[in-house]
Amino acid sequence: MSQRVVFNRPGPPEVMRLEEHNLEAPGAGELRVRHTAIGVNFIDVYHRSGAYPLAQPSGLGMEAVGVVEAVGAGVTGFRVGQKVAYATPPLGAYATVRNYPAQRLVHVPPNLDDAQVAAGLVKGLTAWFLLHRTHRLVPHQNVLIYAAAGGVGQILARWARHLGANVFGIVGSEEKREHALWAGCEEVFLLSDDYVGALAERGRMHVVYDSLGAVSFERSLNCLRPLGMMVSFGNASGAPPALAPSVLLEKGSLFLTRPSLMDYVADHAELEAGWEQLAQLMIEGVINCSPSQEFALADVVQAHRALESRQTTGSTILRP
Length: 320
Hints:
With about 325 residues, the protein is of the alpha/beta class. About 30% of the residues lie in helices and about 25% in strands. It has 10 helices and 15 strands. The strands form 3 sheets. Strands 3, 4, 5, 6, 7, 14 and 15 form a 7-stranded mixed sheet that branches. Strands 10-9-8-11-12-13 form a 6-stranded parallel sheet. Helix 2 (about 115-135) crosses helix 3 and helix 2 (about 115-135) crosses helix 9. The two termini are about 15 Å apart.
């Protein structure tokens, strides 16, 4: 008997419940994976709350690491006992074991820790496409990262610094400032600071990675130099305001994009390319994705409460 988290309507963390269910044999093109560690991401909150509507009832979670238990018909390249991971839908990672499409799985090197992979696969692939696909970062460019003490923020900062960029961070509290500095930011501002003016003195930004949305969007645009790139990749504070294209012209022919990881890894070759780069940096110790918090799968409600109340830093995982 396996266990999984489900919810029947959008709402607060309490709508989630852990239930037992009988898992069928994997179908054609699928593997059965027994999870060893499960990633928790803010997109899970969007799914659960209804910000990103789902058909109900629904499972939750799109990131996990585990061991192959069974192989469905037509699957090649995988065998029972191998360590694998995934970071895309179909949702349902909040479970002890599940069936998952083989074409969306990646192999995990045996010398990588399961917890680190579960904590860093979605976030690390997000950093990869933001730095290498959405905006191709080059040495000496000025980069501003919001929520720089968060899971994605810390990986972004570390990777951007590795690429030779000048990295600046925004955090919500003094306590989180130290985490952002540790991750690679050379200077960190509080969201309440006049960081627009301070960054203007440092030459303004080539690119801004804004995961907050409503509370920061306008200031982010004002931090950019002419021809700069505004990357709005999250709505933690609510959706950004509507923007007339003429505003981008007035501020120096700026670029604006609202990217999604799913589009950048829709092709399996791209997924493999991103994972190969991320895994190598993890093995080399350039990027440390070790989780800052762990919760039991049965304590998923507490995990979501902590995430939404900004009580967490870095990454969070669930243990089946």
